[in-house]
């Protein structure tokens, strides 16, 4: 009880006395810390976890500048000669432009073709005046988001397989010839985009719907009194009302443009489509862990992380202008 | 209320879009189920799979479950999902609660320490080497511990703890409760819906996860469900599967796909609202 009172008093005076007497401030700070020791104890396992599983790997990127071998480990392996050997090897290899092109294209297509359908769906949900229909369709459209990429790959086989796929059966029955949707290079990126849309169309709409719902309803009422049609209201009230959210999300997506969907590509791709479907992440996996070229794999991973870092920071800076940021 | 003709058209378009969306979400799954139930005789008769087979059989399911690999992998997945989610929740709560206390000295530093890992990562290879040097390769720990904390979920839970009224904690402290008891008896009970949301996100993540197993598990006995399903989908040409004449290979594959997604689909309607709420909580943050 007594200590409680002291605590309150300390707080009441803290703005005025702060800075005047550094010694006193330090003492107060350590008293504060001691009082909250239980909170630090709670935090400790997490801090250790972050150190081991996040910060040690960050230190581990030094193997990009070494010739890593298993016997000598991260510390013992000799430094690469010259220091940028692996970077040079990557930048000069034919993979460099191919990987970058594939990663950026797949990412951009997903952005382009994924965002607008979600916005439209959110508007449709908002405009639907039949409560039960809206709720049902919402529930159903969010569901694919929770299926794994393996399951979605299985579903794609059911529809798109050259021999048994439903779509190809329809095509052959109407006199066409079966299209290698999953096996050919022509369709590979489109299939990635299509399956991504199927998975996240409804889920992506949630955030836009929330933004639309927070638009001042009197705007709609006023427009209605003025005799505006609902299409006009969408154009002049709904869309401008969520413009900032749209821009914000676009910017944030651009910050992670080098993530083209590792798990999805990993599940869908195979050697025949490397040409159009191999992205940075999948290449790092194959080079680093399958071919055991740890240093080169880590180098390309570092290249991606570094660019990603700059992009996220830039995106966040931009995003602040539109009234939001990641942190 | 008077509805004009253009309004009627507008509504009609809305309803058509919604129905199409619903069909697009559900039809693929229904078709996969139908395929998994199609016996070989039907495939021969119709020259392939059709949407509604006349005769159905559960033989595809019987066959895939006759292979002990599937049952074992389900057990692995259940263990990892239950154990992993438990570990997730303990770590996430223990991180979120202290950070939700605004007067915690060093709070900004700790937050930065965590959020920085969302911006920059060592990458796949160095992470693998760390986990390898910890001796976790080919243990279920590799599927649980490296993913114990998702920073995003810490932020969600933290922002929820922050909404709890400060007076509550003050009065608990005046009553002489220690921090661990306050967390356990005040903060957690009041945050159950949010904790549940976060827990469900972790759970679905564990159930669907396959890549950490691809990375860290080479012992086939420890393969989780998704990896086994993936192997079945890739094994189209296997002679062993093609020798079956009563059950089509594709039916068995689709049965495996259903086995991998059914638990999620079955519980999804009941937990759906938690997910959307979590999404919005995250969105407010993000």
TrEMBL record, chain B:
Listed GO biological process terms: transmembrane transport
Domain ABC transmembrane type-1: 74-266
Keyword 4Fe-4S in annotation: no
Protein's membrane topology: Multi-pass membrane protein
Domain of life: Bacteria
SUPFAM superfamilies: MetI-like (SSF161098)
Keywords: Cell membrane, Membrane, Transmembrane, Transmembrane helix, Transport
GO CC, any one term: plasma membrane
Spans through the membrane: 12-33, 74-97, 109-131, 137-161, 182-204, 250-271
Pfam families for the chain: BPD_transp_1
Family of the protein in this entry: Belongs to the binding-protein-dependent transport system permease family.
Name of this protein: Carbohydrate ABC transporter permease
Protein transport as UniProt keyword: no
Predominant place of localization: membrane
Compartment list: Cell membrane
């Amino acid at each position: 009880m007594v200590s409680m009172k002291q605590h309150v008093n300390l707080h009441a005076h803290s703005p005025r006395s702060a800075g005047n007497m550094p010694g006193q401030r330090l003492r107060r700070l350590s008293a504060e810390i001691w009082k909250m020791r239980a909170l630090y104890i709670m935090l400790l396992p997490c801090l250790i976890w972050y150190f081991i599983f996040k910060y040690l790997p960050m230190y581990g990127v030094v193997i990009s500048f070494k010739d890593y071998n298993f016997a000598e480990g991260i510390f013992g392996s000799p430094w690469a000669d010259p220091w940028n050997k692996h970077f040079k090897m990557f930048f000069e290899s034919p993979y460099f432009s191919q990987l970058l092109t594939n990663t950026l294209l797949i990412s951009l297509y997903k952005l382009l073709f994924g965002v607008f359908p979600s916005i439209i769906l959110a508007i449709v949900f908002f405009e639907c005046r039949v409560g039960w229909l809206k709720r049902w369709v919402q529930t159903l459209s969010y569901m694919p988001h929770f299926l794994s990429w393996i399951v979605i790959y299985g579903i794609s086989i059911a529809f798109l397989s050259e021999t048994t796929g439903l779509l190809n059966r329809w095509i052959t029955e109407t006199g066409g010839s079966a299209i290698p949707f999953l096996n050919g290079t022509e369709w590979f990126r489109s299939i990635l985009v299509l399956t991504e849309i199927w998975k996240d169309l409804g889920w992506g709409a949630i955030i836009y719907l929330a933004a639309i719902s927070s638009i001042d309803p009197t705007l709609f009422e006023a427009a209605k009194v003025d005799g505006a049609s609902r299409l006009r209201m969408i154009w002049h009230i709904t869309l401008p009302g969520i413009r900032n959210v749209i821009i914000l999300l676009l910017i944030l997506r651009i910050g992670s443009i080098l993530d083209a969907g590792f798990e999805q590509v990993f599940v869908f791709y195979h050697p025949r489509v490397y040409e159009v479907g191999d992205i940075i992440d999948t290449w790092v996996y194959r080079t680093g862990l399958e071919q055991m070229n740890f240093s080169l794999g880590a180098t390309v991973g570092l290249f991606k992380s570094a660019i990603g870092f700059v992009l996220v920071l830039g995106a966040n800076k931009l995003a602040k202008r539109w009234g939001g940021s990641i942190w | 209320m008077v509805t004009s003709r253009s309004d009627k058209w507008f509504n009609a378009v809305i309803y058509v879009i919604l129905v199409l969306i619903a069909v697009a979400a559900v039809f693929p799954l229904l078709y996969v189920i139908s395929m998994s139930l199609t016996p070989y005789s039907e495939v021969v008769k119709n020259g392939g799979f059709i949407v509604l087979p006349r005769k159905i059989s559960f033989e595809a399911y019987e066959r895939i479950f006759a292979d002990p690999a599937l049952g074992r992998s389900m057990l692995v997945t259940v263990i990892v999902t239950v154990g992993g989610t438990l570990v997730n929740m303990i770590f996430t709560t223990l991180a979120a609660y202290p950070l939700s206390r605004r007067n915690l000295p060093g709070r900004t530093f700790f937050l930065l320490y965590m959020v920085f890992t969302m911006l920059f990562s060592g990458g796949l290879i160095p992470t693998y080497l760390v986990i390898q040097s910890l001796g976790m390769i080919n243990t279920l720990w590799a599927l649980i511990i490296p993913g114990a904390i998702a920073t995003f979920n810490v932020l969600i839970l933290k922002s929820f703890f922050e909404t709890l009224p400060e007076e509550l904690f003050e009065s608990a402290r005046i009553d002489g409760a220690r921090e661990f008891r306050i967390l356990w008896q005040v903060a957690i009970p009041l945050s159950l819906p949010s904790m549940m949301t976060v827990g469900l996100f972790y759970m679905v993540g564990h159930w669907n996860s396959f890549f950490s197993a691809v990375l860290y598990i080479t012992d086939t006995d420890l393969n989780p469900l998704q990896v086994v399903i993936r192997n079945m989908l890739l094994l189209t040409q296997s002679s062993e599967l093609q020798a079956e004449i009563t059950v089509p290979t594709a039916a068995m594959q689709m049965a495996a796909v259903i086995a991998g997604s059914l638990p999620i689909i079955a519980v999804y309607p009941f937990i759906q609202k938690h997910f959307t709420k979590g999404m919005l909580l995250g969105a407010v943050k993000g």
